[in-house]
Each structure stands twice: as structure tokens, then as C-alpha cells.
Amino acid sequence: MIYSLLAAYNEQDNIAGVISDIGENYGDVPFKIILVDDGSTDETSAIAKNSVSKFPGCLTIIRHEKNSGLGAALKTGFDYLFKVIQPDDIVLTLDADNTHPLYVSKAMVEKTIGDAGIVIASRFCKGGEEIGLTIGRKFLSRLARGLFSIMFPYRGLTDYTCGFRAYRGDLLIKLHKTFGDKLITQTGFPAGTELLLKSLALKPKIEEVPLALRYDLKKGKSKIKILKTIGAYLIMTLYIKVGINR
What we know:
Blueprint (H helix, E strand, L loop, with lengths): L1 E7 L6 H12 L4 E8 L5 H7 L8 E6 L5 H12 L8 E6 L7 H11 L4 E5 L6 E3 L3 H17 L13 E4 H11 L11 H9 L6 E5 L1 E3 L11 H20 L1
Parallel strand pairs: 1-2, 1-4, 2-3, 5-8, 6-9
Antiparallel strand pairs: 4-7, 5-7
Helix pairs in contact: 5-8
């Protein structure tokens, strides 16, 4: 089974395209979409339901009553997945704003079926790029990359903050047994990186595929607050570094 985990907040203009792309790419294999609607005040959930008519039964929507942040949405999604995933399943995490091209995930899944525990769509490996990002977002991604490359160097890893990843089921099961409810503690944008950094403690094989991040295709405003996110990354880095070294 291939699971696609989407965390969405007010993505009514983007969600239909994302779900349609998932169906087009994985409609010929067993797949499910887990959508965590993080307290959207628009029609995100309704549009999502209407987008899966060709694939009945493939969509599960979990709704937060109020907006709690990306990390909280990811935690909710993974808490659900930990109850159902099997060792040979694959979990894709991707943004719900149409900035992650699904065709890239085919190569990610193939590598995960092989011997990779995690496959990351990287903006920084050969062939990767960022299109349409603001100067502030580019600065944040490069600052984070530099910080994590120094603090958590790992073979085959160049992109620590892109949330477009494929995880093998057996690795996620081990992570859940190792960290339990402490696997994801961040409520905001750093949560995806927290999950990756904690995964390094189990020394999985990590591979990457090049990603052309298409931020120019996103409809609506960015929800990230750069200064707040930088502070959260710094605090999280120190916390995890101490925890992993114990």
C-alpha cells in the first residue's frame, strides 16, 4: 500500500490538483490518501471529497476543529498511520499546495521498494532547483541547510527541510517504537525536519532524487513566518542534538 499524507490549511485552490495528481500516478496500485484538514475555514475538505470520485474509498479526512499548525497536523496523520501501516508499505509526505510535482514520487517509491529507508526530493542535489521562491524563503532554506549539514551530517542527505519524502513502513514502525509520542513534538513548520533528524538515530539508508520546487504554481499566500520559524529551528536543533547524543 502507498499512503500519501497531506496536511492542509485553507488549500481550497490547490487541493483538487494535488489529489488528482496522486490518483493519476497511483490509480493502478493500492493507494490511500490521508488528508489532515488543520482547521480550514474554506472548502478544502469538501473539494477534496469531490476530487476522488474516480477512486472511491481512497480518501480519509481527519479534521482539526481549529488550526493547530503543520506539526500538529503531521502528528495526527502519523498517529493514524501507525495503527494501519505494514512493514512493506510506503508513506509519502507532500505539501497540499501543489508545489511538489507528483511525477518525482515515482522514482522515490522505486528507491524505497529497494533498500532505502527514506527517499527525499531534494532541491540541492544535482538537477534540483527552486522556482518562484521569495528571497526570504530562499534565505531560510539555505540557512537551515547549512545549520543541519554541520550539526547532523549524513551520507546522501542534502535537503533537510523539504517535506516531500518517501518513508518505508518498517522504518516508521521502528521510529514509533523508539520515540512513541515524542516522535513529533514541534507544532509548526520544523516538525518535518524533526521527524527526519530523529530518523537518523536509526541510521537508515537515505537517498535523494532531484526536485524542481514549483512555488510559482502555488495559489494563495505563504503561511510560513520566517523569523519565528528560524527561532524554532534553532531551539529544535539543540534539543534533538542533546537527545540523540545521550
